[in-house]
Amino acid sequence: MIKYLGSKKKMTPFILNTIADFFPNATSVMDLFSGSSCVGYALKKKGYQVFSNDHNFFAYMLAKCYVETDFSYELIKDTSLWIAYLNTLHGSSGYFTSTFCVKSNFFHKSNGEKIDSIREEILHHSLPPALTAILLVSLIEAADKVDSTCGMQMAYLKKFPPRAYKPITLKVPTLLYQSTYGKSLALNLDVLSAAKKIIADVAYIDPPYNQHNYLANYHIWESLALWDKPAHYGIACKRIDCKVRKSIFNYKNLFLSNLSHLLNIIQSKNIILSFSDEGFINSNELKQFLSKHGKLISILSFKYKRYIGSKIGIHNKFGIPVGHSSHSYNKEFLYILEK
Ligand SMILES: C[S@@+](CC[C@H](N)C(=O)[O-])C[C@H]1O[C@@H](n2cnc3c(N)ncnc32)[C@H](O)[C@@H]1O
């Protein structure tokens, strides 16, 4: 799985236990802001039927691979052959190299050239959608292992870390068997549209909790997945559409009204909302707000180490340290709500 801001990877056992404890009869869960797909993957592994949604295309590819696509021997055989072949390709400079290795410094040029060759090859073979998603995820994960960032693509490191010099190598993603409760599904919609379409026993909601836009944080994965070679801007060569593709959940003044709208639309009685103590709404405010939308059954908290960037400190655009972050742990709350 890729490095992802706000990923609940460390918390997945806690989330799974919470669902099992509070909703023991549940067989299906919707993950409406699926991001890295680590929650959907853990849920599917546990046997739930999962409905994942994210409005970014690369996140949809992750969910299509890890949540929607089921393990089969034929598929894994095909995938292994493709990945072995893609790993033999020679690098050839194209959009990726010029944008992310020459105009910016996110990857070593030799890896950028291989990424260009592999992505073009995937495009030219017009493969079935599930296989395409698996190969794109394999490419994104391999690229994530040799990048030169501290986990977000708003900036690159001043000097390549040792991993950036390693040759990129694709691996076969580990797929899961279909849940006995039915086929899981990945969607690529705005959350308000997705919530109208899906019905599940439990809705897990993990919205952005501050102004930072995930598309801008992970613009390279979006461009690699879409392969639309967009115009870009700034030192980080962000996709031009980062300026217009925004989330309605990234605005503090609109957050609660949008969350209210979402809670009204969701067709599940049982809701679990994840929210961080670093978010722009404090716990008391959220508690009062949620009480107006149903019965707030419980609030659970989980303490975990903050994102890697907080250990590195705060730097200006030239990579010069300009401050330290205030603390190295934060708390994530799970609000259990019955509508
Ligand atoms: C906090 S992250 C979710 C992290 C995820 N639970 C994980 O463990 O990786 C929030 C996600 O919501 C997505 N998102 C933001 N606004 C959205 C919207 N309006 N509709 C659908 N997805 C949205 C972002 O792309 C991001 O992946």
Task: Name some characteristics of this structure.
single chain; alpha/beta; seven-stranded mixed β-sheet; two-stranded antiparallel sheet; globular; binds S-adenosylmethionine
- Count the strands? 11
State the helical fraction.
40-55%
Tell me the overall shape.
Answer: globular
Largest sheet, in brief, is: 7 strands, mixed
Low-confidence stretches: none
Strand order of the largest sheet: 3-2-1-4-7-11-8
| Total number of helices | 13
Give every kind of bound small molecule, once each: S-adenosylmethionine
Sheet/helix structural class: alpha/beta
Average pLDDT confidence is: 94
Written account of the structure:
The structure is a single chain. The longest helix has 17 residues, at 129-145. Helix 2 links the parallel strand 1 and strand 2 (49-53). This protein is α/β, with parallel strands linked by helices and 339 residues long. It is globular, with a radius of gyration of 20 Å. The chain has a domain at 71-175 and 210-246. A seven-stranded mixed sheet has the order 3-2-1-4-7-11-8, with helices on both faces. 40% of the residues lie in helices and 16% in strands. The two termini are 33 Å apart. Bound molecules: S-adenosylmethionine.
